[in-house]
Amino acid sequence: MVYDDQDWAIFGSISSESTHIALRVALRAEIPIVNSASTDPTIPETYIPWYFTDLQDDRVQSFTLARRIFSELGLKRVAILRINNRYGRLGVPKLRDAARRLGHPLSSSRSICPATRITQSSCM
What we know:
Elements (H helix, E strand, L loop, with lengths): L9 E2 L4 H14 L3 E3 L15 E3 L4 H15 L6 E5 L2 H16 L6 E5 L12
Parallel strand pairs: 1-2, 2-3, 4-5
Helix pairs in contact: 2-3
């Protein structure tokens, strides 16, 4: 498609897996790829010179979030409740590392299944 349609650029996918595949196509076809949704920190590490993004990766977002939580809001004990899927599993270590670097290790981390309904009584 890239060659037949004479595309000028590739627009990245919302999923990191698909964006990785598009990166390979862009590298081979030597056309720019624009990422607008994927936060996977390994994508910019591919060092493709014509890769552009308007979104920071998980590491930068996590450090910004941790700085807001601990420095600006002054919270001391923070726990994470995350969904048990790829997005939840990959983001938590970045936030945990950022909190540790700021001197505030996370109190706890729990995962829930996507179909779990959270009620006030189940959170106590």
